[in-house]
Write a structure and sequence with these properties.
The complex is a heterodimer. Chain A is of the alpha+beta class. Chain A has helices at 2-29, 37-62, 69-74, 81-86, 92-113, 119-143, 167-195, 201-232, 243-268, 272-294, 308-332, 348-380, 388-409, 422-440, 445-470, 476-498, 601-625; strands spanning 384-386, 500-506, 511-514, 517-528, 532-542, 548-551, 554-558, 564-567, 569-572, 576-584, 591-599. Among the domains of chain A are: 1-163, no CATH class; 500-602, no CATH class. Chain B has three helices and seven strands; from the N terminus they run αβαββββββα. In chain B, strand 3 (67-68) and strand 4 (73-78) form a beta hairpin. The chains are: A alpha+beta, B alpha+beta.
Chain lengths: 626, 139
């Protein structure tokens, strides 16, 4: 139908404008004139074409045009309108189209926003970015056309996986993509700046905007995915070290490190190689994430189709980009720090350098844990998986010095610094240890790591808290983010130490009592909704303090596709979440019940919001300073 | 003999090397400890010695084999050649049903008896765990 056709041909127009931009950019590169206005103009049209194409797809979804293959496979007439729209990017082809929308939008914003940058640098960034864009265009048109026809036209679609029919998951991909694709601008800009030997303080201050925004979006995108997994998958946790989660964490770690390096580069013009390598690896890791998730190597809710051709294409594309960037790095990057700036061991620079090494260590742990099973499968076809203990064991002990360093070193001055108030800091540390021992009420070897971790996060917590009052506005964004990080570790730790769980199988009318907690399964009620049948279970929970709570978890039996999902019922307070989820066992009277009390759960989300708020504030401050 | 600067640099490089090799050692060691192997019921039958490591077993839930009470659930995993009894108390995914694919994680008590600590949740009815698909395909 019409929107479908418009969308399809609009894609070709977008690809055509990419070639046109290449032509004008190369022509414009060596002339003395300013940047050709036509380039910005065409760049805008390229964005417009892709948006039209994307809208064409959205309209096809809204009107349930089943002559379009992906609408047929991912939609259904009875689906609510909101999920018809979000279904547009709830599949492989549509989500790639969204990638393209953001790619073209960002390069347009970059062109408009970089007026005061050298012309050659702007053009070269544009060229690199267009190479990526063309790659994605070809990938989309050749292997994953979102506008493929089917004939005869089916009467009804197959429906969207119900687990994806959720508000948090409707906005999770776009936000995450803004972060992922933001790193592509950093990548292109870093390559362009290296080629032109333009890595400088000015460049750092200009690219910081992109690093910050990509980082904020990535942080919030991961947070949304995590919140969704918490209430929808019914496992009651927020992070499972699942490969799919890890591939989003890796670019985040690299980007966070880059953010710190950029600040140093802006102030001191050192760590240039770090900045370039991190810019390259951040984008490469984002692409790797797309590759691993899309190629079907990792099986998960994100895997839409297992098509080896797609995996092959992304892999080749990825490798060409890596080879290109390595080539540029080694041939163009001149390490002209011959002046040999002396770095004093106790200074902000050194502390950030040490932070970098810590982050690289965390990154390698996650990378090894994610890639090793794939690697082993390829070379020996042995199937293995790596569980959370691997990550916990390798990451938790190193968090202790990391947190302490964050508390002390991040407050150091540039160049040469002294640790002020040594006595009061050591006193504070002793106090935090006592506080942790008091909270944990246990002191043995097994708890030693936890005690120390708890005290070091308290230490960071209090030092950042103190700074809010003493140096009110100095480094406020940094202080907020670091404060948020300490809060995050604190809440994760207290959450994992103090949460409790009861799992039982119950029939309607039965009750179960253990540890002074009584779970009474009162009744079930059936309701018919738009595209699913809902079974609500009514539970009475009597907790050890004799408070009675009513919780109503739900089972949803979707009509198309015929899948049962569980909707947890969660009562949130500032102290703890009570979480109950029920699952059915087919053809049995028993329901599988999981009841959890999750301490400080809501603070995990709040602390991540605080962390990203620090970034937002820094962005505002930067614009304000202009 | 050597200047202070050279000594310092030497010491610096030495420390980095030590830290690096320690890290590599640590990572490899915990990798070895925490790897969970996947096995099919037939592979379990051919085991010569019983291991105490955590493993994963995959196959189909045998028809009419689920037996549930308030404490635990018993069922049989089969790959149509061999089968193994599984006992589990914990959360069951919604897609867990007789005649469907399943992956159980836990400890082998003997060749016929598996104590599961986790039944892996599957997201999709069309979806078959790749390990299970492969184990069944070999038949």
């Amino acid at each position: 139908m019409l929107p479908n056709l418009i969308g399809f041909y609009s894609l070709f127009l977008g690809l055509g404008s990419a070639l046109l931009i290449l032509y004008f950019a190369i022509k414009n590169f060596n002339t003395i004139n300013n940047l050709d206005k036509r380039i910005i103009f065409i760049s805008f049209f390229q964005f417009l074409f892709v948006v039209i194409s994307f809208f064409g797809l959205i309209v096809s979804f809204v009107i349930s045009d089943f002559s379009n293959e992906i609408v047929f496979q991912n939609s259904h007439t009875t689906k609510p309108l909101f999920y018809k729209i979000s279904g547009t990017w709830g599949n492989h082809e549509g989500s790639l189209l969204l990638w393209l929308v953001v790619l073209t939008l960002f390069i347009f914003i970059f062109l408009v926003n970089s007026k005061f940058q050298p012309k050659k640098y702007r053009i070269l960034t544009l060229l690199f970015q267009q190479i990526i864009i063309i790659g994605f265009f070809i990938f989309l048109i050749k292997t994953s056309n979102p506008f493929a026809y089917i004939y005869p036209v089916p009467k009804e679609g197959l429906g969207l996986n119900p687990i994806l029919q959720d508000p948090a998951l409707a906005i999770h991909p776009p936000i995450l993509y803004l972060g992922y694709v933001g790193t592509s601008v950093i990548f292109s800009a870093a390559l362009a700046a290296t080629t032109l030997n333009y890595i400088s303080k000015e460049w750092a201050s200009h690219i910081k905007f992109w690093v910050l925004s990509a980082w904020i979006f990535l942080t919030i995108g991961i947070l949304l995915g995590s919140i969704w997994a918490y209430y929808e998958l019914g496992w009651g946790g927020f992070w499972f070290w699942d490969p799919v989660e890890n591939v989003s964490l890796m670019p985040w770690i690299a980007l966070t490190t880059l953010l710190h390096c950029i600040i140093v580069l802006e102030k001191k013009f050192i760590l240039t190689s770090w900045v370039i390598i991190l810019s390259i690896s951040t984008f490469t890791l984002s692409m790797c994430g797309t590759f691993l998730v899309r190629s079907g190597i990792l099986n998960s809710v994100h895997t839409f189709a297992n098509d080896p051709e797609r995996g092959m294409f992304i892999l080749i594309f990825l490798f060409s980009l890596i080879i290109l960037s390595i080539f540029i790095f080694f041939f163009f990057h001149k390490n002209d720090q011959k002046k040999s700036i002396k770095i004093f061991w106790l200074s902000k620079e050194t502390s950030i350098l040490i932070n970098n090494w810590f982050m690289m260590y965390f990154l390698s742990v996650v990378l090894i844990g994610t890639v090793y099973p794939i690697f082993l499968d390829v070379i020996s076809s042995q199937k293995i998986s790596i569980g959370p203990p691997f990550y916990h064991k390798l990451i938790i002990p190193f968090l202790i010095p990391f947190l302490l360093a964050m508390a002390i070193w991040s407050k150091l001055n540039w160049n040469k610094a002294k640790v002020k108030n040594q006595i009061s800091l050591s006193l504070l540390f002793v106090c935090t240890i006592l506080l942790s021992v008091f909270i944990l009420k246990k002191l043995d070897i097994e708890f030693l790591t936890y005690t120390l971790l708890l005290s070091s996060s308290f230490f960071l917590f209090f030092t950042s808290l103190k700074d809010f009052f003493t140096n009110k506005f100095i480094n406020l964004p940094q202080n907020i983010s670091h404060f948020g990080f300490s809060l995050l570790i604190l809440s994760i730790l207290l959450n994992s130490l103090f949460s409790s769980e009861i799992i039982t199988n119950l029939k309607v009318g039965e009750s179960h009592e253990i540890n002074k907690t009584k779970i009474f399964f009162e009744k079930i009620e059936k309701r018919k909704e738009q595209n699913y049948l809902s079974i609500v279970g009514y539970f009475n929970i009597t907790d050890p303090q004799k408070n009675v709570k009513n919780l109503e978890p739900e089972l949803r039996i979707y009509n198309q596709p015929n899948i049962i999902t569980s909707e947890a019922d969660i009562k949130t307070t500032l102290i703890s979440d009570t979480f109950i989820v029920m699952n059915s066992v087919k053809n049995k009277d028993y329901f599988n019940i999981r009841y959890q009390v999750k301490t400080f759960m809501v603070w995990i989300w709040i602390s991540v919001l605080i962390i990203s708020f620090g970034g937002i504030l820094s962005l505002i401050k930067k614009n304000y300073a202009k | 003999m050597y200047g202070r600067k050279v000594k310092l640099r030497f010491f610096f490089i030495f420390t980095i090397l030590v830290i690096l090799s320690l890290t590599v050692f640590l990572v490899l060691k915990s990798l070895e400890e925490n790897v969970i192997y996947f096995q099919s019921p037939t592979e379990i039958k051919t085991l010569t010695e019983k291991k105490n490591d955590k493993i994963r077993i995959g196959g189909m839930v045998k028809k009419n084999s689920i037996n549930i009470n308030s404490k635990k659930i018993n069922f049989i995993i089969t790959d149509f050649d061999n089968e193994i009894n599984v006992t589990y108390s914990g959360v069951l995914p919604n897609l867990f049903a007789e005649g469907k694919g399943v992956v159980a994680e836990g400890y082998l008590k003997d060749k016929n008896y598996f104590l599961a600590t986790k039944i892996l949740a599957k997201h999709d009815e069309k979806y078959m765990p790749p390990e299970v698909a492969e184990a069944l395909k070999e038949k």
